[in-house]
Amino acid sequence: MALSSLTAPLFALFMSLGGFNWSYGSQTDTKGKAMVELTADENLSGVKVTIKGSDGTEVSKSINIKAGKSTKVTWTQKGRQVSYEIKIEANDAFTNGEFEVVRPVAGGTRGSLALQSDREEIVDDQKIRYKTPFTLSSHELQVFNTDGEMIVDDTVTDEIVEAGETFEMSWQTADEVFMIKVTGSDDTGYSATDTRVPWSVHIPHTEVNFDSGKYNIKGDEEWKVAEAFAVLVHELDNLERANKALDDLDPDNATSADDIKVQLYIVGYTDTVGNAADNKKLSENRARSIAQYFVDNGAWCEIHYAGMGEKGLAVDTGDSVDEVRNRRALYILSPQKPAGGGQVPGGGSWKKLADARPRMMNNLPPLPESYTKYKEEQRQAREAKFGGGGYSGDGDDDGDLGDGGDDDGALGGSGSSGGDGGSGSSGASGSSSDGGPPSVGGEPGGTKQGCAVEDPATGTGLGLLASLFGLLGLRRRRRAS
């Protein structure tokens, strides 16, 4: 408890007693104990101390003071910030004064902030909610765009959040959101930070037509995979630039974690014609052929593949039905292995084809015109919906790493609290031809969907991406009056 020394205005008789002083603690301890300390140059007995607070507190004590030694008067403060009047009487002399004491906000159990929001609330509504295990005196929201710029920095200091309660922070921006960081703090200097990455990448592709029972990519079909590959490497390039921008803002890397890394997962599917076991093997081989094409042409991320065969049909049909929309592939770009379920295989089904490797490609292939047009349409849609970027308190977000994407996004998350960490899970999802990205070459595909980072099984993935940044940016703060 810090002491603020204050010499009371003393009457002459007090001074004749050899000198008398009193001081107070400007801040209580974590349990709310306030304190006044009295000292004198000579022994004093029967000193009456009366203290009245603006929170209704009344303290009246009679004490003895030994020369050269301090005597403390303590009480429990009810309010957070209380003004007091003090009166001290010794024999026929007295003095009085005023002071103010703050009760620090603290309590509960130190630990990580617990995310309460699902993906839709964060991405679609631009709101994020947490439950805190310890009492907060302030909480801060920082939002970063895909250029690594902090576009929102809002600190709330006029609201106390008790341990076990939830709090919500919101924003509104037309920028593509790359990272959201929320920090809660108490008055003892303890804080907990949680970081989320609402990042989605959509790579539209035209489905490759394989010969019946075959899995090799024919020459006249290669252009379809080549266009999807072009979009993939451009998005990997965008990720590198976003990571670099954040690293440049924290050159000493004192508070940031490793760069965000992603893996590509390719799933193959068949229709219901033929034997189910044979179809599963066929779909796996087709997915591997596409994956191998990406590796051979220079993709530098880690690549996995799997086959679902007749499971996870895009169009529900009976057995032995020739349905072109079910002969398809799904590309999932994700910071971790996607959760199994629905149209995505379980964790044990994935086979690694290639590890991540150094980038050797300097000149990227041109993006398909249809993809460039799609991205521009998405940018215009965000502008129409949100207007300018910045903090507004409410809104929507369809942040994706490359300037495209609708409202499908994975949320990579991590928590740190005074050295403690927390985490979530992450996945990926495709979108349908009704609402998803267009086919690249104008030819219809099964899902019109390439790489994404939302969980297709649940749509509510929360991934493990540790990342703490001490960055500067545009600021808007609310302070206690």
TrEMBL record:
Keywords: Membrane
InterPro entries assigned to the protein according to its UniProt record, in alphabetical order: OmpA-like, OmpA-like_sf
Bias type Gly residues, positions: 410-427, 438-448
Gene3D superfamilies registered for this protein in UniProt: OmpA-like domain
Domain OmpA-like: 197-337
One GO CC annotation: membrane
Comp. bias regions, Basic and acidic residues: 374-385
Record keyword Transport present: no
UniProt xrefs under Pfam families: OmpA
Protein name according to UniProt: Outer membrane protein A
Protein species of origin: Enhygromyxa salina
Lineage: Bacteria, Pseudomonadati, Myxococcota, Polyangia, Nannocystales
Gene it is expressed from: ompA
